[in-house]
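Internal QA ticket QA-208
Title: Verify multi-chain structure generation after dependency bump
Assignee: T.L.

Test input:
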Amino acid sequence: MIQVKLKVFRFDPEKGDIKPRYDKFTVEADPTDKVLDLLHRVKWEQDGTLSFRRSCSHGICGSCAMKINGANMLACEANLKNFRDPTNITVEPLQSLSIFKDLVVDLTDFFKKYEIVKPYLINKTPPPATERLQSPEEHQLINESTWCIQCAACTTSCPSNWKNPQFLGPAALLKSYRYNFDSRDEGAYERMQILDNNDGVWRCHTIFNCVEACPKDINITWHISELKKKLVSREY
Amino acid sequence: MIVKHDVVIVGAGLAGLRCAIEASQNYDVAVLSKIFPTRSHSGAAQGGIAASLGNVEEDHIDWHFFDTVKGSDYLGDQDAIEFLVNDAHPAIYELEHMGVPFSRTPDGKINQRKFGGHTRNYGEKPVLRACFAADRTGHMMLHTLYDQCIKDNVRFYSEFYVMDILVKDGIVRGLVAYDMTGGHYVTIYAKVVMFGTGGYGRAFKITSNAHANTGDGLGIVLRAGLALEDMEFVQFHPTGVYRYGILVSEGARGEGAYLLNKDGERFMERYAPKLMELAPRDLTARSIQTEIDEGRGIEGKDYVHLDLRHLGEAKITERLPEIRSFCRKIVGIDPVVEPIPIQPTAHYSMGGIPVTVDGEVLADGKSQKVEGFYAAGECACVSVHGANRLGTNSQLECVVFGRRAGKAIVRFLTTNGVEKADLPEDLIKTSIERVEGIKMNEGDQKVGQLRQELQEVMMKKVGLFRDEQSLTEALEKVRELEERVKKIQIDDKGMQFNTDLTEALELDNLLHFAEIIVCGALNRKESRGAQYRRDYPKRDDQNWLKHTLAIRKDKKIEFDYKPVIITKFQPKERKY
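Actual output:
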């Protein structure tokens, strides 16, 4: 067992907090514990008021994205053994969003952008009695983009998004790719109009922060570049 | 604050969203969820969804029908199972048309894999029946359905924790919820309430379930004076990651993974020579636990190995990428080069809210309907799984019966109009007072501690193997916890995103039905499906071919029973 000094961002406007602060907790931990385990131990044993989101605890629900030692990641996957100094951990909320309380950020804007890109299959041709056929190669084209869990780690790590909150951001653009490149979809034209402006794909300056932050190892920048290529070539 | 809708759905997993899509074609539908919709635990389902499409090899609806009945240890209601297997075809094609990115066969059809208990020709050998999207099938379906809901303008209330349903004189009038980000209580006034609130794996120490899976819907139903069915049947998934409980899909064994004990022996040969690793879950989980109990766990510890290595890196990467990913990140091993340490993990509740095949909730579990109240998915008991569910049948149940409930809701509103019955102010007041009471309560008990004690006793004494003594001890403990929970004190007295409060309410819900699980198991003096009694190791059709019903009246639990519906397949000895 090791002793971890856990520094946690705290802010509760309901209690009249005007500025955030950092609370320090000392937590007993196994060297392979996850940061989420530490947060739970604090909440259940030391301070019940500490607030954070979490659910599945194995990286598929996307609830617990937060900034840990300066980098966005899922707390449930943040294995202590992967930190240079596992005895000093700092936990902060995702950057650039307003805060409800402690580590709980307001994701309203994030999901509004998601809805803007028409994130659903558009196909006006009546479907056949069985499945629409799609070759494994056609499926492969969208496969990686479907891994997204909407955790917001990418968009909140994007400097273009910090500077221009109107920017749709990597998560919404990735979703747009997911349907635009689906062989069963007929909606690329309508979706591309939404992307072809300064708050759309052209705001992406290929900084690759999103790729680094993505817990599902999706090469988001590549997908955005494919959207740009499609726009330039007018192949939709 | 009061908000009005025609239909309000609680829970944004597969059942709730599928129902929302159906009902929103005609009516104003709202979906409440205590977490954001795409965080729902349906998204953690990995291996597949069953339908006898026959895309890869010969298969028939009737084979699926038989497998499900046999898998249920003959406790499943065969009228409902017939709907499950028949509707599977249109339900899955509809999902595909909505855009679910299924894995494909070389000729472009939905690909299918093997799964436990699904067989060719009434038990001959495993059959390719589970439609899949690598090992992220649930994730793909959940996200696609959410996307469709956006298209259909379904109104979402995310991070609304539902406290109580408002039922008066047998008629639903809406519900009371805690708006976590808004920081206040809200009444949703509706003609129809539909529950897709999921399961309660978090009643157990080792579970594949998310922290959110605390069976809130079941606690709410009991408080409303309604019945629960077959709660003693809790499924333990054979392959949870050792100590973590994280699910490793049966799809891994469907692709050919082996179960090995400390001698490197494929021990399933001794328990299910025909289906081996693809025997149904109850049997496989007990076999693993027997190996462990008899000292054949790896290094004498409480786990055996799930070995994927012989499948090769290419196949693992293509078919089981998510499993590989969390094994590397969370467990710290790579299944391409090392076997995965696994142990049985609490996974699924076969029991739940008794409903008709159209999802209509039955107040007494038998014939008396609650007007305007529907349920589907894991929280409901229709019952298609009986005493043991087959893998891939739960996602199918969500989609098929969520869809059926949606259609039934549309029929109900078309016939009866959307005019609502009066709002019962007294019930709203009682609900808020109860929650405020828990929030402001003073005492020396902590939520985390009580929950941990509950999880430990349920795991140890109400798990894979049960007997009179273990269950009696568990009952004593659960009753002690029911007393101690009255003395809990939480730290957070605020209204803004108070998860200290919601965790206390979740614990209260868990304790509402934990006693019913224990007593149901204690009453049922036989072994059937997931319920295994060491002191009654045989199935007893003479006395126990019936469903358990339980109601809480004045703190006391009353038990009743109802017959199983058998239409085609008469009970036979169950061998694999």
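Spot checks passed. Chain A has a mean pLDDT of 97.
Status: verified.
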